[in-house]
């Protein structure tokens, strides 16, 4: 499959005009300056909005916004560009489900092998896999004697390089991270906060384009594929979820983002719930 | 639910009050820790206090210690909202009894995150 035709945002095809329009809009409305090297960011942040509006590309969407002079769409662009979507322990109910149901069940089911393979499939700058690592360390100390591997992948090599360093700005550590965990698992150097080496070393980062060929990986007991399927069309979603099905161990669970569903997709999963959270297991 | 915004900056009080009101809180304001304690005596108690660190008369840390010393206010969740950003500051605030710590600058979504962390989220 040609990934560039299905995944908006993996290539930076944004026109200069379109980029300058967004840059100017964000500056006027939010006083935020977008660096000229961040064209990819504009495209990836606006892709879901473009898709929702029925546009064939982000360029086409921005042409439409400019010609219609829609205040509402302009506001939605500002929101999409200024909302920091990457935060620690994102979506409390999902982490409650992991802590209180999914991981305790996995520990029972894997007690003979004493091994767990976890995949954060769209890890961005690392907040998700590091949150999982901290969760395991905080709530499941018995796993210290297990072989636990957290794989973290993203399509962007740039964000992977940032994630590997485990360094976060003040704004990033302000989002979702309990202060007690900040003190316990980070050290400060000026305005940067670096995650402790033992937590950083629990995570292995590697590139992976979900719409392309996946690298050779083990079967996973837990896959977090959250807030990434929105970037794909229905055909690509079906393909990705079918591959996720084959990558999940027989006891494994798959988590999508809050509000993401498998509606109109049959990829061989059963829907499970824990309180407000939804997750999926292989169909029995 | 009700909240108490404690900050000596009028602009900061206005911003926080607007955010909290939009989130459905009835909000009281105080310019320093002393005023905040008087406000608590007047209104009984609040669900949440958002507290700056550096203020005249009584600073945020002293206010938090005074609140935590009074069993009547045991249920108040305290979120420190401050431009003090050192590791030592966070340690000191939590030791004094703050439940969470938000570093300025902040925005609405960050305050919402922090409310969830103190158990007052949607």
3D structure, described in words:
The complex is a heterodimer of chains A (284) and B (122). In chain A, helix 3 packs across helix 5. In chain A, the strands form three sheets. A five-stranded parallel sheet of chain A has the order 6-2-1-7-8. Chain A is built from twelve helices and ten strands. Chain A has helices spanning 3-6, 16-30, 39-52, 58-68, 71-82, 92-109, 127-139, 157-165, 170-173, 179-185, 197-200, 234-247; strands at residues 115-120, 147-154, 167-169, 186-189, 192-195, 203-207, 220-225, 248-256, 269-274, 277-282. Helices cover 44% and strands 20% of the residues of chain A. Chain A is of the alpha/beta class and 284 residues long. Chain A starts with a helix and ends with a strand. By secondary structure, chain B is an alpha/beta fold. In chain B, 43% of the residues lie in helices and 20% in strands. Chain B contains five helices and five strands; from the N terminus they run βαβαβαβαβα. Chain B has a five-stranded parallel sheet, with helices on both faces. In chain B, helix 3 (60-68) links the parallel strand 3 (48-51) and strand 4. Chain B is globular, with a radius of gyration of 13 Å. The mean pLDDT of chain B is 95. Chain A binds chain B through residues 83-84, 87, 92, 170-171, 174-176, 178-180, 182-183, 187-188, 191, and chain B through 85-87, 90-91, 93-94, 98, 100-103, 105-106, 109-110, 113, 116-117, 121.
What is the number of strand segments of chain A? 10
Rounded to an integer in angstroms, the radius of gyration calculated over CA atoms of chain A is 19 Å
Mean pLDDT of chain A: 88
Largest protein interface, residues of each chain: A-B, 17 and 20 residues
Largest sheet of chain B: 5 strands, parallel
| Strand count of chain B | 5
Coarse structural class of chain B:
alpha/beta
The proportion of strand residues of chain A reads 15-25%
Shape annotation of chain B: globular
The radius of gyration computed from the alpha-carbon positions of chain B, rounded to a whole number of angstroms, is: 13 Å
Q: Can you list the strand order of the major beta sheet of chain A?
A: 6-2-1-7-8
> What is the 3D shape of chain A?
globular
Tell me what portion of residues of chain B adopts beta-strand conformation: 15-25%
Helix content, binned percent of chain B: 40-55%
Query: If helices are DSSP runs of H or I spanning 4 or more residues, what is the number of helices of chain A?
Result: 12
